[in-house]
Amino acid sequence: MLQASIGLRLGDLDLAVDVEVADGEVVALLGPNGAGKTTVLRAIAGLIPIDAGRITLDGRVLDEPGSQTFVATAERPIGVVFQDYLLFPRMTALDNVAFGLRARGVTKSEARARAGQWLARVGLSDQAHAKPRALSGGQAQRVALARALATDPRVLLLDEPLAALDARSRVHVRAELRRHLASFGGARLLVTHDPVDAVVLADRLVVIEAGRVVQAGTTAAVTHHPRSRYVADLVGVNLLEGRAIDGRTVRLPGGAELVLADPLPGPEVAVALRPQAIALHREHPAGSPRNCWPATVTDLEADRDRVRVQLDGPVTVAAEVTPAAVAELGLAPGVSVWASVKAVDLIAYER
Amino acid sequence: MPTDVTPRRRATLRDRPPAALVPLAVVAVAFVVVPFVALLQRAPWTDLADLLTEPVVSDALRLSLVSAFAATSLSLLFGIPLAWVLARSRFPGRSLVRALVILPMVLPPVVGGAALLFAFGRRGLLGGPVYDGTSFLLPFSTWGVVVANTFVALPFLVVTVEAGLRSADRRYEDAAATLGAGRWTVFRRITLPMAAPSIGAGALLCWARALGEFGATVTFAGNLQGRTQTMPLAVFLALESDRGAAIALSLVLIAVSLVVLVPLRDRWLAV
Q: In what side-by-side order are the strands of the sheet with A249-251?
C-alpha cells in the first residue's frame, strides 16, 4: 500500500496531491502537461524531496519533512519505467535488466541469468545482446519494464509509458503493457496525459490540474460522471461494454455491432472511443462505413470552439464537433442524424 | 530531362562557401603550413639518421613521452573528481575555485614555473619542510618535469570534462538510482561512461599541452639532459649550437604529435 501526501513547490508549480495505491491496483494520474504529474512520480521515487506531507509504503515512512525522514532513492523498493525509457545506451538489453540486480550485490552470473528470465517473460530473449538503439519503441518499453521489475519492487511507477510510441505501434503496445501490468502484484501508479491510456490501463483515475486533484474515483465513475467541464474534456471518453461475437466484432447490449481494426483481447470487452473520432451526417453516409448507426441528438453543450453532442440510439455516446458543423447539419435536440466511426478509432480492452 | 543528382553533387552544391571566405581560409592554411615546409626544406636529410641516434635526442624523446603520459595520468586521477565537483555540487566560492583552476591556462608558463618553485623548492612553502625532513627535492628532477607539465595541462582536462558532465543527461543517473545503485556505482557505471568522449578529448588536449610544455619546465625543473631536458628544451638549446640537430628534434616532435593526434582527433575532437 502506497500512501503519498505530497506538498511541493517547484518553479511555477504548487503541488498538493494525495494519492493512494493499494497492492494489485493500477492507478492512473491523469492531467495535462505541466499539471505536476511527473513531479508526483519523482517525489515518490525519492528523486525530489517533498516540502510538506508524507510518503509511506506499507507503513514505512519514505519521506516526511516534519520528522526529518528521507529514504534515498536507491533504498526504496520502487521500480520506475521512465518516459523515453532511459535504457543505458552503452549496455545491452541484458545488461540493462541485470543492472539493478548487480547494484544490489547479486553476482554477475546470477544477475545475468535472472535478467535473461525477465527478457524471456517479456518475449525479448532474442534481443538480449542488442543495444538499446537497435530496439523498436515497443521493445525498448518492454526492456524498461523488465529492468524495473527485475529488482522485485513493491511499487511500479510508469511515466507516460506510451508517449514515445508512434500511433501505429501504440495500440498493440498498450494491449501488451496491460497484460504485463496484470502479472505484477504490487501497487502500480501510471502517469499519462492520454485518457485512452488511462481508461485502458487503470482501475482508478486521479485527475489533476495545476497541482491539485480535481477528481478521483474508479475509471467508470470518472468517465461517466465528470464533475467539471475540465474533467469532462480530459476524460470524456466514451466507454462501451459488450461481448465479442467474432475476432474483431463487438455486440453492445442494445444489439448494435462495432467492428474493430485490431483483434479483440477476450470475450468480454470494453471499447474506448473518443468523442472527436465520431463523425455526424444528415444522410446515411455514402460508401457505407461499417461502423454507422442512426442516432437522435438529446443535448448540445458548447464549450469554446467545440460542441459536445449527446446521442441516443443503438449506441449511446457523446460526439464532439465544431460549431460550424452544428450549423451545417442543423443539430438540435430531437434531430435525427447518422453517426459513424472508423474501425481504427475503436480501442478494446478486456473487462 | 532531369540531371542525375548524386548525393556528392548535392552536398557540393549545398555547401558551396561564400566567395569571400575562400581566400581567407587559404591564407589560414598557408600560415600553418609554410613554417613546416620551411622546416622540412632546411632539414639535414643526409645526416638525419646519425643525428637521431645521438643520446641527446633519444634521452629527450623518452623524457618527453614519459612526462607527458605521467602528467596526463595525474590529470585524469585528480581532474575528473575536480570536474565532477565543479559541475555537480554547490558550495560557496565555487566560481572562485573555477577561476583559479583555469588560471594556469592563461598565465605565462614561466610565471607558473616560478610559483611552483616558491611552493615546492628547497625553501618553498611545502618543499622546505619536506626537504628538511626527507631531503627529497622536487625541482630539477624528472618528477619536477611531471609536476610542471601537470600544472599547465590539468586545466585543459578539467574544463573539457566539466563541460561534458554538464551536458550529460542526468536522467540516466536517476534511472540507475531507482534500480538501487548507490552514488559510487552511479558514478562508475553511468556517469563515467557518459562522460567518456569528453574525458578522451580532455586527455588528448592535456597530453598535447604537456608534450609542448617549455616555460614552466625550464623554470621549475631546469635543463639537465636525461633528467629534465624534454624535447622542446632540447630544440631550444640546439638552435643556439647545432641547427641541424634542432631541426631533427623538431621533426621527431612533429611526427610523434601527428601519430597521436590524427587517429584520435576525429574520434574525440569532432563536434
A: A257-259, A249-251, A238-246, A268-273, A347-350
pLDDT for residue B145 is more than 70: yes
Q: How far apart are CA B39 and CA B44, in angstroms?
A: 10
Q: How confident is the model at residue A157 (pLDDT cuts 50, 70, 90)?
A: very high
Given an 8 Å threshold on Cβ–Cβ distance, is A151 in contact with B179?
A: yes
pLDDT per position as a tens digit, A297-340: 988 887 767 888 889 888 888 898 888 888 888 888 989 999 99
Q: Is B192 on the interface with A (CB under 8 A)?
A: no
* Pick from A126, A203, A115, A197: nearest CA to A151: A115
Q: What is the ipTM of this complex?
A: 0.78
pLDDT range class, residue B64, cuts 50, 70, 90: very high
* Yes or no, beta carbons of A73 and B190 under 8 Å apart: no
**Mean pLDDT, residues B42-66 taken together:** 84
Q: Greater confidence, A315 or A134?
A: A134
Where residue B266 falls among pLDDT bands split at 50, 70, 90?
A: low
The CA–CA distances, whole Å, from A15 to A8, A33, A209, A288, B73 equal 5, 14, 10, 50, 48
pTM: 0.79
Cβ-proximal residues to B246 (8 Å cutoff; 6+ apart), any chain: B235, B236, B238, B239
The percentage of chain A sitting over the pLDDT mark of 90, rounded to a whole number, equals 51
Q: Which DSSP state fits A133? A: G
Residue A47 to residue B177, Cβ atoms within 8 A: yes
Structural element, H or E, at residue A204:
strand A204-209
The bridge status of strand A292-303 relative to strand A249-251 is unpaired
CB contact under 8 A, B178 and A72: no
Instruction: Determine whether the interchain pair B182/A74 forms a contact, defined as Cβ–Cβ distance below 8 Å.
Output: yes
Least CA distance to B190: which residue of chain A?
A88
Inspect the interface and report whether the beta carbons of A82 and B179 lie closer than 8 Å.
Answer: no
Within 92-121 of A, beta carbons closer than 8 Å to B belong to 99-100, 103-104
Helix, strand, coil distribution of chain B in percent, nearest 5: 80, 0, 20
pLDDT score for B271? 41
Contacts of B249 (CB under 8 A, 6+ apart): B57, B60, B231, B234, B235, B238
CB B178 to CB A148 under 8 A? yes
Q: Which of B176, B182, B193 sits opposite A90 (nearest CB)?
A: B193
Predicted confidence (pLDDT) at residue B191 exceeds the cutoff of 90: yes
Would an 8 Å CB–CB cutoff place A45 in contact with chain B? yes
Nearest residue in B to A102, CA atom: B181
Q: In one letter, which amino acid is A335?
A: V
Q: Is B190 on the interface with A (CB under 8 A)?
A: yes
CB-based contact, A47 to chain B, within 8 Å: yes
